[in-house]
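Troubleshooting entry. Yesterday's outputs looked truncated, so today I'm pasting the complete records for two proteins to confirm everything comes through intact. If either block looks cut off, that's the bug. Protein one:
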Amino acid sequence: MSEIKVFGYIVVSILLLSAIILPLVEVFNVTRERVMLYNNIHNSFRAARDSSYTYHEMRRLNSVVFENRFKEGFADTFATSFGINCRDSSGNTLLFEGNDVYNDFIVEIEFGTPIIYDIEDYSVMTVAIEASTRYKFKIGMLVLATRADPDPFQLKCKREFTIRLIN
């Protein structure tokens, strides 16, 4: 009889521990995905920055970043890093189709006005990038909770970069 009680205590403790540990694992997954999003935005920015102008264009006075080339380079790198496809890249909002791991991404790119410094012979331009997606929970309890929630959990990342072009 005592063996049955011990077995029952073990089963109940496993159930309670799983109810506590599984949401913690999901929190670690959310943190990991957020770090991946920040890193992918940074890497996509660097690739887009390097592909949006050429050395010949940098040598001319008051050089600028070509925004269409920047958006194309950013979209290609961002889509490749997550294994998704770019659905729409018109305007300053890029839409990416989700897959079985990720939901749809919305990336907004805002270009600042270039500031030209004649004395130092360079120009500076800011680029603000904001990416957001609904997080796809992997644990059953949290999946059910997000289905009932009208305002789902959003992964958001906003970064501002500075591009310095030497004329």
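Protein two, checking that the full record survives here as well:
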Amino acid sequence: MMSENQDLINNNVQERLRAPECQQQMITAFFYAAIETHPSPGQLKQSFVESSERLIATSIDKPLPDDWLRQSIGYRDMLVLLIDNKIAQGF
């Protein structure tokens, strides 16, 4: 009985973790497509950085774990690197 309950809990946790991971992968793919087709990657970068800074600034006031903030900044920085690579290629 305990094993069945633990299995149900484990499956529930795994399902809950997969959803945000899938969302992040799809958003990254969409963002990459936007970078590849945007006529002005520099403007895209500026707009994205400003928007992400607002999100990060508002999250500081929320009761979120520190690792959430670090992960948000890391993910933002990774996406900015994608834009920078596109700019370096001479779009």
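Both blocks look complete. Sanity check on protein two: The chain has a mean pLDDT of 84.
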